Amino acid sequence: MKVTINSFWLLTILLALSVVAHAQAVDARLAAKFREATEAQRAGRFDEAAAAYAEVIRLRPALAEAYVNFGLVRQEQKQYDEAVKLFEKAIALKPQLAGAHLFLGIARYSLGQTEPAIVALDEAVRLLPKDARALMWLGVAHLAAGHAAEAAKHLDAAATLQPADVDILYHRGRAHLKLSQESYEQMYKADPKSARVHQVLAQSYEESGRDAEAIAEYEAAIRIAPNLPGVRDALGSLYWKNNRMDDAERMFEEELKLDPHNALVMYKAGGMRVERGQPERGLPLLEAAIRQSPDLIDAYYYLGKAQGLLGQNDAAIANLTKVVAGNPTGQLKESAYYQLSRVYRKVGRQAEAQQALLAFQKLKDEREQQKSDKLEEIKKRMPN
What we know:
The chain has helices at residues 7-24, 28-43, 46-59, 64-76, 80-93, 98-110, 114-127, 132-144, 148-161, 166-190, 195-207, 211-224, 231-241, 245-258, 263-275, 279-292, 297-309, 313-325, 332-346, 350-381.
């Protein structure tokens, strides 16, 4: 990861210099040279900045902040060994200078010295326990050292402080992926014939779009452990996706025998029956799913569709309206507008039917445009 100059840190150093200047009557030449150094550093003129900081240090050898900024310049120049020496000198002069520990850790990480980097970054986090960047770098160093659990802990803490930071989220994802891989490897070593191993393989195949292999692994898991919850739910969803409706319904029914209060499986089983033209069979399951989990917004779509097919028009309108006002998955909002237009037309509310149809068409057009844009982007990336 590239280390960039932190303008806030530089401002902090300038303020520190002002304090030193006031307290110790720093001469005008030193102040001017420090200003020259920081301005060159901000502008990316690193050779000029390095020469100016060297002069600042000659004039005031005990100014810890100058060593830190000089170290940052060397870091930008990829002279990491020199940066390490400068940060260590700053720490020797002022052990509580948190930024010096942080940048020392980053410099050592850049040199591949992960364990010394962790030591420095641990101290930075001790001094800056609520600093998201310090926590992130500590997590990154632990990840490089192969300590996935420790890395995930620090990166989770960083993400709590900065939940929208893309760098933190990226490294956090890497840490948790590594932790999962380690867990699966340990599981395989413990019992390679375990149903859980087949379940993990199935999930991996499913995520990569290899449905046939995923189905085979889920089926193997069920043969080994017939009472393992969750497997039939996942397999039923894959069957549904691949238009194996009878198999899907059987899986959902068997899952409900194992877990009778699973609202998600009730919703899937009920929704599939509605899609198969059996609204009267799907309705009780959908009503039960919503009673148990009122926030399951997707279930309201299938419930509304079933009610519309059964002539329960007012109830259908109420439930489909909840879907378009909420945040359903996939294309359900688009489909809900279409179903609403049909029900409104049935009850003679033509203006509202037209509005719903227009909303449906707008969402459909936007989806098609996004698909077209993605295809164009892929074409642009392809070699001529």
